[in-house]
Amino acid sequence: MKAVGQLVVIEGLDGAGKRTLSDGLTAALKEAGASVAGLAFPRYGRSVHADLVRETLHRGHGDLADSVYGMAMLYALDRSGAADEIRELQAANDVVLLDRYVASNAAYAAARLRQHADGEVVRWVWDLEVSRFALPRPDAHLLLRVSPEVAAERAERRAEADSARTRDAFETDDSLQLRCAGVYDELAAAGWLAPWHVLDGVAGVDLPTLAKSLLG
Fold it and tell me: What is the pTM of this model?
């Protein structure tokens, strides 16, 4: 029986370069002989919950964006709807790369409530997504670490170059991004949900070496 593929999650601030890392790492893994599949969250255009997130973050649906738990529930429901697809991708590939996953919910919800990684909302996210929804658990997190200032500058340039990727209410909140960076560091230090590997998003990543380490 074929072994289930590794589930590797790329995390980081908005504008950290997660999509670029995902594309480059996919190419490096394939060069090393691995079969690779990928999925990005939220699944805009594919999930009603993800589309509600996008609409809300661009000031739709009244005051829904003000509810930390309400927004976190929408993100979680989007992932719950993808659980079977993730398992199918794992069964068919050596590695499945996810651009954002459960840790994003934990980091942003905690940052919005000004809590730390050991706070109540992070435990709630775990209980909801890991325990209740039984989402596939990742084998590794890759935290692409950049300063909030660098992330904001990159997100702004991205929005200018692509009208479909305008910055939302979370992306334009500099203080939220700063707090979120701190929570991500705490999650990584605690090894929350799966082992974390912190990557320098400014100096660059040695993709062939990273690919080999993931493949063991």
Answer: 0.91
